[in-house]
Automatic annotation (TrEMBL):
GO (cellular component) term, any one: plasma membrane
EC number(s) reported in the record: 3.6.1.27
Membrane topology classification: Multi-pass membrane protein
Remaining remarks: Bacitracin is thought to be involved in the inhibition of peptidoglycan synthesis by sequestering undecaprenyl diphosphate, thereby reducing the pool of lipid carrier available.
Organism field: Lactococcus allomyrinae
Annotated TM spans: 48-69, 90-108, 114-137, 158-187, 199-218, 230-251, 263-283
Keywords of the record: Antibiotic resistance, Cell membrane, Cell shape, Cell wall biogenesis/degradation, Hydrolase, Membrane, Peptidoglycan synthesis, Transmembrane, Transmembrane helix
Superkingdom of source: Bacteria
GO molecular function: undecaprenyl-diphosphatase activity
Main location group: membrane
Protein's UniProt name: Undecaprenyl-diphosphatase
Length: 284
């Protein structure tokens, strides 16, 4: 049964990681009804490491754009010196944006998990950022022009600002992509560039978070059984495949629509969660 649960959780991760609706929040919700028959330590590690599958989808889809080495490119897709320079600059922007979350998130990781990895905080974060999306799209964006329509023209300071907004996503339910997209829109970055930069920013952030969780898992004396490894690998593979579709969907979606729908979805889901938490508390 854990393999079926892993597939379901992989689908949830693949869909929600890149859409601004909080993958962690959805996994918390899913685990209320779909519980892996594994240790608490493994499940805690699983919830983060499953993101590796999602990360790989970005690398595959944007390999040419992200790869600065011509030796790894086909002969018909060799980059010019200028394109290689822009690729290195893109990686520098990504690393700059990743620093705030790394500096603040690493020391607070365990504390945040202990105090906010629950239904009610997730519900409130879903609602708060849902409202933020709607307000920004309806009130802010119409009165402010976008200044960045190409990711190569994203200023380094904008990358840092987006990284600072990403710090807000350390709270479960916020959504890493949601926080960075909100920040990008506020500083004048177009929806397409905001979404694309969010994808790239996820590579070092989620890879780093996964390494930290794996390190703590083994540091605390846990071992990984063959079954656990298989469950984790299956979930990652499913997340990879579904993420490929989710990323393509979002990039096509933002060409014609704004993020208002996602804001409404977050509010409805957050409200449902609060009602569920209240009923559960009353029922004892």
């Amino acid at each position: 049964m854990d393999f079926i649960r892993a597939i379901i959780l992989g689908i949830i991760e693949g869909i929600t990681e890149w859409l601004p609706i909080s993958s962690t929040g959805h996994l918390i919700i899913a685990e209320e009804f779909i519980r892996l028959n594994q240790s608490a330590a493994f499940k805690e590690m699983f919830d983060v490491v499953i993101q590796l599958g999602a990360i790989l989808s970005v690398v595959v889809l944007y390999f040419h754009k992200l790869n600065p080495f011509n030796k790894l490119n086909p002969k018909d897709k060799q980059k010019t010196p200028r394109e290689i320079q822009l690729t290195w600059r893109l990686w520098l922007k990504v690393l700059i944006a990743a620093l705030p979350a790394a500096i603040i998130g690493l020391p607070l990781n365990n504390w945040l998990d202990a105090h906010f990895y629950h239904f009610v905080p997730v519900a409130f974060m879903l609602i708060i950022y849902g409202v933020a999306f709607i307000v920004i799209e309806r009130q802010w964006v119409p009165n402010h022009e976008f200044s960045v329509f190409n990711i190569d023209r994203l200023p380094y300071r904008f990358a840092l600002y987006i990284g600072l907004f990403q710090v807000l996503s350390l709270l479960p339910g916020t959504s890493r992509s949601g926080a960075t997209i909100v920040g990008a829109l506020l500083i004048g970055v177009s929806r397409e560039v905001a979404a694309e930069f969010t994808f790239f920013l996820g590579i070092p952030v989620m890879f780093g978070a996964s390494l930290v969780k794996i390190f703590h898992f083994f540091k605390n004396g846990n071992s990984l059984t063959l079954e656990q490894f298989s469950v984790l690998l299956l979930a990652c593979l499913v997340a990879f495949g579904v993420s490929m579709l989710a990323i393509k969907f979002l990039m096509n979606y933002v060409k014609k629509h704004d993020f208002t729908f996602f804001g409404k979805y977050r509010i409805v889901l957050g409200a449902v969660l609060l009602v569920y938490a209240a009923v559960k508390a009353i029922a004892g």
